[in-house]
Structures are given as C-alpha cells and as structure tokens.
Backbone:
C-alpha cells in the first residue's frame, strides 16, 4: 500500500490556480522531496494535505484511507503531522509541554479528572512525561525540558517542532523547509537526523526544501513544482539533471 | 514536586494568610466597620478577576462582558432566594443552592454566546461580549417578573400588567427597581471558601491536558489544530468555566446588598475587572488576586482621591503597558533584583 497518494489535487485563490493537478505517490518509508521556485505552491500542497485549506478538486489517501474534506484535527488523528516554514511553537509554554501537546490525543483524560486530580490524571501525566522525555532525548533536548520554548536557539526550535510532530505518532511527516536558516554543518546534521527519524519511527517523510545538497543527499524521489503545476517527478538524480528543471530554477 | 504545583501552593498560602489577617483585623476592630464591609466585595472581585483571567490571559481572547455573566448569576440566584426564603431557612444551604443556580445559568449563557462567536477570530468576541453585557443589563432593567399560585408571570410594561393573584402574588423583579430584599446570606468566610474553590478549579485546569490545550490555542492556533487539538472545544471550555465563576461572583454580590438592581453591571465594571487582570499580568492567577486587592483598596483608602479613580486607572494601565513592553525597563528591573539577590548571597556567605 502507498503511504500517500494524491490524485489531481487543485486549489484556486480568487481565480488564480495556486496548485493544479497535483498527483504524486509516496511509498512506505520513503523520503520524498518537493522542490520548486518561490511561489510554486509547495506550502499550499502541505496546507491541503493537513486540512488547513480545502482542495477545490482531486483527492488524497493516506495508506488507502481517503482524507479529503476532513478537518486538521481529524487528519492529525489519522496520521499526518507537519512542521512549518516559519516555526510555529507554543512559545510561552515549556519545551516539555510542547511535546506533551503533541501527545494530546495519545493519552487522553477528561478535563474533570484534570481539575479533580483523579487517578487517570496522574497515570496519563506520568505516561506523557515519560514519553515526552524519551522523545526529547532523541533530539538531545532533554536538558532543556523546562525551558520556555521561545528562549531556545533557532536550531533547537526546529528540532523541537519535529519532536512535537513525531509525538502525534504520524504515519507521514511533512517537513516544510527544515534546513531554512541553517549553516552547512547544521544542514549535514539535520540530514542525518531526518534519515534516523525515518528509520527509528518507521514513517514516510515528504519534505519541501531549497537546499539542493540536502535534497540530493537524502531524497529518494522528488517532484518539481512550478507555477502550481508538476514539472516533473522521478528519481532524484534524473530529475535534477533534467534541463526543464534547471531552466525553471536557474533560467536559461 | 512539580514547579507548577509549588507555585499553586504558594498562591493558596497567600490567600489563606490574607484571609486570616483580615479576620483577625476585623475581629479586633482594627479594620473598622467601613473596611470590614469591603471584605465581601473584594472577594467577589477576586473571583471575577481570576475567572476573567482564564478567558483573557490563558485562552487569549478578549472578553468585555464579564459583568453581564455576573448580572445573570445575580438575578437568577436572587429570584431563587426570594422564592425559597420561607422554604429553606438555613442561609448557608440557600446560598449554596443559589450559587449553583447562578453559576450554571451563567455557564449556559456562556455556551450560548460562545458557540457562534468563538468560531470567529480577532475582535468579534470582544464586540459580542460587550453587546451581551449591555443587552442583559437592559433586559433585566426593563423586565417585570412575579410569582403566584399559577406560576411565573412576565411583563415588559409594569408590575400591574402581570395580573398577579392578590393573595399569593409576589413581585420578584420590579423593573428598574430590581429585586429587594434579597436575603443577605453572603459572608466573608463563604466568600473565602468560594475563592479557594475558584483557584482550585482554574489552577488545576490550567495545569492539565485541557489547560495546555487552551494555552496552545492562545500561542499558535494553526499549530494547535495540526497536532489534533480541537480549537472550538477548548475555547468553549475556557469561556464557559469563566462565565460560571462570574455567575457565582454575581450571586455573592446579590446576596451581599439586599437591594439588587442593574446599576453595577455596566461596561465600566467589565473594564475594571479587565484592568485588574491586565495589571496583575495576563495568565498570572496570583497577579490577578494581588492587583484586585491593591486596586480595589487603594481608592477606598484614599477617599478624597475617589473622584479621579478612573483617571488613575487609565494612567496606571498605560504606564503598565508601556513599561511591560520596554526592554530598558525590564533589564533595569532584572539588574536591580539580580544585584539585590547577589548582595544577599554575599552577606549570607560572609555570615
């Protein structure tokens, strides 16, 4: 079964076709890249896949399950998690609480048990704490568990966002420009991390990236988007040597 | 112990210490009759500020109609108490039931207003809650309600047009004259217990799964949605709990002044509570308590200053906002406190 299949996804903003006929399929455990010039519609694709925007046409399936028309909350429960191009953390809460929010639907207990401190509160809070710390350890963030998220340095904020997304136990992880603002060393480390995440959590990853070293380094297949339409799809090396792609990126 | 738990325990301790001090001062006559009479009002304002902090500070939505929920709680509970005055003769039991009714009715209004409005973003909630507060106030100002053996009677014209039965009829709400007399069941001790309950609910809610979810809506709505937090549910939860306690504060108010009318439930009161919350620090429950105490007492202590109270509030509010957003001021404060702590540490080391 495919991890993700999209069929002719499209969306229009006031007469402008932001994305049109977007069809890709991602194998289980694959690292898939989505590239394209600025304004090509990459983030719009992510917003459709997470239910933030309702696609105007087409359909998409996560492990065969149709997700079109579901709300972001339902899609999250089905198993798609994401990070954002401009980091969106819960700034005023601690690093630990950020990850615990990712665990929101995995260890549920009612607000009443929370207020009255019933046994289910203590049981689930303990499980949440343990699971969250374990996840933070993977990203070497456990030392800063009680730091306020806004006070973390940039690179760690990116890591925390990934940790929070993974806390929801996704089947598919969408990374929106994970290397943005990172230096070459940090990017190299990130590449290792992404591969490690894929293997350890046994998930598929779709990522948007401008950094070609990262894309060619880890993506097995890529799709190039230009002006909302797919320019080409295929094995990374083939696509990157395609003259059309070079033209779209660098010009003639 | 968890840091949040420790912080909460200190807050309880502060409230208990303040209560004990106030009781002692009141009993020994240090406070005098005027200040002793302010103990109950301070208490319900603390409840109002703490509950509004849940909406404004923790959920991050601006509500300008807190006095409206207070009004609903006050009127419904006062009607209950007037009707049952002869049936339930224990004041404590009557007040407890009245609080339950006042709180629940206010919560129902919270849900009714919250469902349509909380789906919207931005300033809509502020505008609708502002309108709600004014509408409720004017509604209770205009309505006549009476009871007789045939049940409840309503009129929007005058008391006569309710056609109450002469022998068994009793006017409950007499238009702009309101409800009187309401049994004076509120005592400082009861208020103190209600404050503790309010703190218990609000602080435990905040420090739990639901509380984190409520704060995640405030911190980043889109991120909260994409990790599976239902925005509407948690907004409604915070708003309803907030309305519930505003209703209870209204009950304590109504049962403290035997003549209940709508005068106090106006825009100014809502703003005043908001000022307590903002000055105490958004999201800080302890701050709300302390700010309420100081800002309520200060004008009372400086009676001659009372005329300028609103001016005084405005200036303080503006200064607080300016200073809170001023990096220089913040670093000055932290360097001063840092130096003081350092000196203390030095002295301790020398000793």
Residues:
């Amino acid at each position: 079964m495919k991890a993700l299949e999209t069929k002719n996804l499209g969306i229009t903003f006031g007469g402008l076709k932001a994305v049109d006929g977007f069809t890709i399929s991602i194998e289980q455990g694959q690292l898939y890249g989505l590239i394209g010039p600025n304004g090509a519609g990459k983030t719009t694709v992510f917003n459709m896949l997470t239910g933030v925007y309702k696609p105007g046409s087409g359909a998409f399936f996560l492990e065969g399950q149709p997700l079109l028309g579901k709300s972001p909350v339902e899609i999250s429960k089905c198993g798609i998690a994401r990070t954002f191009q401009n980091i969106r953390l819960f700034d005023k809460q601690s690093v630990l609480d950020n990850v615990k929010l990712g665990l929101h639907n995995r260890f549920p207990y009612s607000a009443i048990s929370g207020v009255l401190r019933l046994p289910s509160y203590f049981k689930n809070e303990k499980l949440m704490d343990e699971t969250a710390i374990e996840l933070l350890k993977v990203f070497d963030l456990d030392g800063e568990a009680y730091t306020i998220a806004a006070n973390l340095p940039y690179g760690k904020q990116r890591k925390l966002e990934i940790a929070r997304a993974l806390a929801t136990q996704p089947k598919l992880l969408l990374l929106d420009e994970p290397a943005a603002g990172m230096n070459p060393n940090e990017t190299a480390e990130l590449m290792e991390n992404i591969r490690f995440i894929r293997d350890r959590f046994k998930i598929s990853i779709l990522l948007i990236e401008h950094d070609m070293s990262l894309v060619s380094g880890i993506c097995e297949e890529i799709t190039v988007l230009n002006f909302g339409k797919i320019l080409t799809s295929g094995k990374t090396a083939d696509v990157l040597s395609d003259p059309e792609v070079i033209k779209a990126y660098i010009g003639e | 112990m968890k840091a949040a738990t420790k912080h909460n325990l200190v807050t309880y301790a502060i409230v208990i210490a303040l209560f004990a001090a106030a009781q002692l001062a009141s009993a020994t006559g240090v406070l005098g009759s005027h200040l002793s009479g302010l103990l109950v009002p301070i208490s319900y304002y603390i409840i109002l500020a703490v509950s509004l902090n849940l909406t404004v500070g923790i959920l991050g939505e601006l509500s300008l109609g807190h006095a409206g929920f207070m009004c609903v709680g006050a009127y419904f509970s006062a009607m209950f108490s007037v009707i049952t005055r002869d049936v339930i003769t224990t004041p404590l039991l009557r007040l407890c039931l009245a609080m339950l009714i006042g709180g629940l009715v206010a919560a129902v209004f919270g849900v009714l207003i919250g469902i349509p409005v909380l789906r919207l973003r931005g300033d809509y909630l502020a505008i609708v809650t502002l309108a709600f507060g004014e509408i409720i106030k004017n509604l209770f100002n205009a309505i006549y309600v009476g009871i007789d053996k045939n049940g409840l009677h309503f009129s929007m014209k005058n008391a006569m047009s309710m056609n109450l039965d002469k022998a068994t009829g009793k006017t409950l709400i007499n238009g702009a004259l309101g409800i009187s007399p309401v049994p004076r069941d509120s005592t400082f001790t009861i208020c103190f217990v209600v404050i503790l309950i309010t703190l218990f609910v609000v602080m435990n809610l905040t420090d739990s799964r639901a509380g984190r979810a409520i704060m995640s809506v405030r911190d980043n709505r889109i991120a909260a949605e994409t990790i599976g937090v239902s925005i509407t549910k948690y907004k409604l939860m915070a708003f309803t709990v907030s309305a519930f306690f505003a209703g209870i504060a209204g009950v304590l108010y109504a049962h403290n002044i035997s003549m209940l009318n709508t005068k106090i439930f106006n825009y100014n009161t809502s703003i005043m509570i908001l000022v307590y919350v903002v000055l105490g620090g958004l999201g800080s429950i302890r701050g709300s308590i302390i700010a309420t105490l100081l800002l309520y007492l200060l004008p009372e202590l400086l009676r001659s200053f009372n005329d300028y109270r609103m001016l005084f509030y405005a200036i303080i509010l503006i200064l607080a906002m300016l200073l809170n957003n001023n990096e220089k001021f913040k670093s000055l404060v932290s360097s001063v406190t840092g130096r003081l702590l350092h000196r203390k540490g030095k002295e301790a080391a020398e000793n």
User: Anything to note?
Assistant: Residues 89-167 of chain A form one domain.
